[in-house]
Write a structure and sequence with these properties.
Number of strands: 20
Strand content: 15-25%
Largest sheet: 9 strands, mixed
Helix content: 25-40%
Shape: globular
Radius of gyration: 23 Å
Number of domains: 2
């Protein structure tokens, strides 16, 4: 099914681990990303900045922003931040945080497999975001943000990872947010061949990086079109653009957290009245939230006297006598169909800032600390790996921000360099 191969990667030097690795993009607001860059000007965030990460009082075109990203990378290379590649290799990559760990394989994944559907996806793709990332590849000419994927557990795969990770690592460090990252090179050709063979027999499921994968496919198609118009002159990036920088993890080691829905609202009480005309709503305490039924979703909002109050809203499950899919009964889908669209007139693909998504615990006390004045929050259940696999296998699409896998792979550790021009 999926095709992988070793890549020629530069790896971050130990002396730079405190400055270069990026925090996870989705876990920070644009303001927080700007603050991180001010504190750590050599962070790889300087290479991957999106338009929303630019200071609001500064005007810069998308093209100039990408050129600035390329210059940031050139500065890192001039400082000798990365250990130059020693040829194509697989790397074993372990992430540890809060007493948990997951160990996977860093490899090149065939873009052909993404185009053909052998790489299974579950998210909608925003064309503008994918296009920005494709343009990023065209100007920066390097990848450092691995696409994260899950595979069904396989003892043969895990045995090789365990054997390699028993040796001394080439890199071992902890970032400012407490994530420990450990890297080993797979030096033995027989082990590399074995890993390639094992992955040939299974589909892979994208867990993080849907837009990066779409951008890699779009960029390759663009370069092929350009090559066809060059009258036979060679393209310096072909066939390198046929492979995406990827990190593949056993499904049992991955943890998915919920993406809660925060909505700006003028009056929480008015919302409760309007939604109560359509659906069953009841006040609740922490114990009742923990014991809620499968159809109920917790809501937290501000009542007029400044108190935060919990309610449970019943979002009907799909009737058992009607055709339905695994998607139909997910919390984000039922919330969209019963509340966001009909009651709040919110389209998740263009919410105009009224709706934001933030990952987090479903512990009510933790959620209470996340809520800001003028907001209410819908607390989502995490999507299970079994549901994600089934939805992906059937070609179904979840709403945006339905999954949040943690810990996340980071930018600035591995570098898949193309020609810098």
């Amino acid at each position: 099914m999926a095709t992988i191969r070793p890549l020629s990667l530069d790896v971050l030097r130990p002396a730079w681990t405190g400055e270069v690795p990026s925090p996870p993009h989705d876990a920070l607001t644009p303001a927080q990303r700007r603050d991180h860059l001010r504190r750590f000007p050599l962070s790889y965030l300087g290479v991957t900045r999106a338009p929303e990460d630019v200071d609001p009082d500064r005007q810069i075109s998308p093209q100039d922003l990408l050129i600035a990203g390329r210059r940031s990378l050139e500065d890192l290379l001039a400082r000798n931040v990365f250990e130059p590649t020693s040829g194509p290799r697989y790397h074993v990559y372990r992430l540890e945080v809060d007493g948990r760990s997951q160990t996977g394989l860093v490899a090149g994944l065939a873009v052909d497999d993404y185009d053909s559907g052998m790489v299974r996806i579950h998210e909608q793709i925003k064309g503008s975001r994918a296009q920005h990332l494709a343009n990023h590849l065209g100007i920066v000419r390097a990848q450092s943000s691995p696409i994260a994927l899950a595979c069904a557990d396989d003892d043969r795969f895990s045995a090789v990872l365990e054997e390699v990770s028993a040796r001394l690592p080439s890199l071992d460090f902890v970032t400012h947010d407490g994530l420990r990252q450990i890297v080993w090179s797979v030096n033995r050709p027989d082990k590399a061949k074995h890993l390639t063979t094992v992955m040939d027999n299974r589909p892979l499921y994208l867990t993080d990086g849907h837009h990066r994968a779409a951008a890699a496919a779009s960029y390759r198609a663009r370069r092929r079109d350009q090559q066809n118009n060059r009258n036979g002159h060679p393209d310096p990036e072909l066939p390198g653009i046929d492979w995406m920088l990827s990190a593949i993890f056993p499904a049992s080691e991955m943890r998915n957290r919920a993406f809660h829905r925060f909505v700006t609202v003028d009056s929480f009480a008015d919302f409760l009245q309007r939604v109560g005309e359509r659906l069953a709503v009841r006040s609740a305490n922490h114990d009742e939230i923990a014991d809620r039924s499968l159809s109920e979703v917790p809501i937290l909002g501000w009542i007029g006297d400044g108190r935060r109050c919990w309610y449970l809203i019943d979002l009907p499950l799909a009737p058992g006598n009607l055709p339905s899919t695994v998607i139909d009964n997910l919390d984000p889908v039922r919330l969209r169909e019963h509340v966001l669209h009909p009651v709040l007139d919110i389209d998740e693909s263009r919410s105009n800032g009224r709706l934001t998504h933030r990952p987090g615990s479903d512990d009510p006390a933790v959620v209470e600390e996340m809520l800001e004045p003028g907001q209410m929050v819908f607390v989502m259940r995490p999507v299970s790996m079994a549901d994600l696999f089934e939805a992906s296998d059937r070609g179904l699409t979840m709403p945006p921000k339905s999954t949040y896998f943690e810990p996340k792979v980071r930018s600035g550790v591995f570098l898949h360099r193309k020609e810098l021009v």
